[in-house]
Design brief:
The protein has 4 helices and 5 strands. It has one domain: Alpha-Beta Complex (Ribosomal Protein L22, Chain A). The two termini are 34 Å apart. The strands form 2 sheets. Strands 1-5-2 form a 3-stranded antiparallel beta sheet. Strands 3-4 form a two-stranded antiparallel sheet. By secondary structure, it is α+β, with helices and mostly antiparallel strands.
């Protein structure tokens, strides 16, 4: 590894140390369905978001709720204190497409229809409302 790459990698590692996040990979639902749920809670305070997700009718909401609880636990572990109401919010939540399983379904007259079973990756970053970046 060259000097420039090493310095760049060290800067990325240092920036990641200050951020509390959680990733959920290879969720067996389409990214579009997951983005509906992600858009619902983006930028919202975490405990309000947990309430929204818990009472949502979307199946993907259960996965995002579990992921958000993990991100909160990661923040508590890094900062050594319990998260209080109104302290944390969802800074970013991204949904990226994962691997697509391609399957064939029999169709009339000897044909076959292709079925794409999509998956996605979700990343949640939580942060405090009162960050001191002065």
């Amino acid at each position: 590894m060259g000097k420039r790459k090493r310095e760049s990698a060290n800067l990325k590692k240092a920036a990641r140390r200050d951020v509390s996040f959680a990733k959920l990979r290879n969720v067996p639902s389409s990214p579009r369905k997951m983005r509906y749920v992600a858009d619902m809670v983006r930028g919202v305070e975490v405990f309000r978001a947990l309430g929204l997700l818990h009472f949502s009718n979307k199946a993907a909401a259960a996965d995002v709720e579990k992921l958000l609880k993990t991100a909160i636990a990661n923040w508590e572990q890094k900062n050594g204190q319990k998260a209080e109401s109104g302290q944390l919010y969802i800074k970013t939540i991204t949904v990226d497409p994962g691997a697509t399983l391609k399957r064939l379904r029999p169709a009339p007259q000897g044909r076959a229809y292709r079925i794409r079973k999509r998956s996605n990756h979700v990343t949640v970053v939580v942060d405090t409302f009162n960050t001191n970046d002065a």
